[in-house]
Every structure is written in structure tokens, then in C-alpha cells.
Design goal:
mainly alpha, 2% strand
């Protein structure tokens, strides 16, 4: 007996079956099912569950908003002098593409010499264009390292320009040693009057003695 789609009340073939929440529906009826799952024998999905899943996916996604730890000037200089050999890509840990850039002119030269003149010229052109694109990306601070972080120029001393909001703690100076008996006597008087407890008296007394 063929299964019946609860949304359109039509039979479902083996090739046209979708199983949201274990219930067979047509592919074209899946959207309607998710909008009103309880109407068709399913369970309502709470928005909190969907939001939680979205947050989990967001937490799992890598964050590349931070700038790269690779130095901008070093990357630029390596690209200028060794860029044709993929030196700058080796520096930012893009090993695969660095090897490809290193090997490409060698392959182009061999093809140019022994196989096809036109194909060799074409490979040389692609290699040169690749180098120029990398150089332009580095200059415009849009070149990325192996982790997808942008290698941007940063002026020294601007890493943390926000004013400090730290309020230094007030330093409590210890009373002179000759005033300690008077201070302890005052504390004892407060204890006798019931203003402070015996435990507080002992604590304050110990603090005064520790300052000697």
C-alpha cells in the first residue's frame, strides 16, 4: 500500500519521499509541513531551539575578523624580491599555492622550449598576472594568510589607543608605630560600646600589627 502525503493527501512514490520528523511527505510539500507540523501529525519546533542551533553554528564557524600575525612590511618585501618564486606565500603558510607558483615558470620554460611556443608564453603570462595580483592585494591590505586573516599594515603603537579606565587603588598608609597602641585602644573602645564585634576587633587589630 502506497504512503499518503498528509499535506496534499496524494500517494507518495519511493523516489518522491521526504522524512521530516519521521513523517513521509512530498518534497514540494515539505515547506508547508514545517510551517504547520502539528496540523499534519508532527511536532512544533520552538523558536528557542532554532535560535540555539543558529548560535551553535555561529560558534563553530571560524572567526577571521582579527588581523594576521604576519608582518605586513616583511610580506611585502618578500613578495617584491621573491614573489615570482612564491616566497610570500611560503611566508604566510600557503604551502600548496606557493609550490605551484614556484613550479609554474619552470614548467612554462620547458613547454616553451620543447613542446609548444604559444602554450609556454601563455603559462608565463598567467604566472606574471598571478604575481601582480598578489602584490596588489598585499599593498591594499587585502592579502590573506593560510587561516583567512588579512595581513594589514598597522602603525606601531596603535594596537591599543583606547584611554585607560583603570582607577588606581588608594594606598592606605600604615600609622606610625607609636600610634598603634592608641589605634588599638580606639578599636577596643568601639568593641566595648558594641559598635564592632569581637571578631571585627581581632581582625582590625591584626591588620594594624601586620603593617609594622
Amino acid at each position: 500500500m502506497a504512503d499518503i502525503c498528509p499535506v496534499c493527501d496524494k500517494s507518495i512514490s519511493f523516489w518522491d519521499a521526504q522524512l521530516p520528523q519521521g513523517i513521509k511527505v512530498h518534497y514540494k510539500c515539505e515547506g508547508e509541513f514545517h510551517q504547520n507540523p502539528e496540523k499534519y501529525g508532527g511536532k512544533a519546533i520552538e523558536n528557542t531551539e532554532v535560535q540555539t542551533e543558529a548560535w551553535e553554528d555561529q560558534d563553530k564557524a571560524p572567526s577571521n575578523s582579527e588581523p594576521s600575525d604576519k608582518d605586513f612590511v616583511t610580506t611585502l618585501l618578500i613578495c617584491i624580491f621573491l614573489g615570482g618564486l612564491g616566497g610570500h606565500r611560503f611566508f604566510v603558510d600557503k604551502q600548496e599555492t606557493a609550490i605551484a607558483m614556484l613550479v609554474m615558470p619552470i614548467v612554462a620554460a620547458l613547454i616553451f622550449e620543447f613542446l609548444a611556443f604559444g602554450l609556454g608564453i601563455l603559462l608565463f603570462a598567467v604566472w606574471g598576472l598571478w604575481y601582480l595580483i598578489d602584490l596588489l592585494q598585499i599593498v591594499t591590505s587585502s592579502f590573506e594568510d593560510s587561516e583567512g586573516r588579512v595581513i594589514a599594515y598597522q602603525v606601531a603603537g596603535t594596537a591599543n589607543t583606547a584611554p585607560s579606565t583603570h582607577v588606581p587603588e588608594k594606598v592606605v598608609e600604615a600609622p606610625p608605630a607609636k600610634d598603634l597602641p592608641a589605634e588599638i585602644e580606639k578599636l577596643a573602645d568601639l568593641k566595648d560600646k558594641g559598635i564592632i564585634t569581637d571578631e571585627e576587633f581581632q581582625q582590625k587589630k591584626q591588620e594594624l600589627l601586620d603593617r609594622i
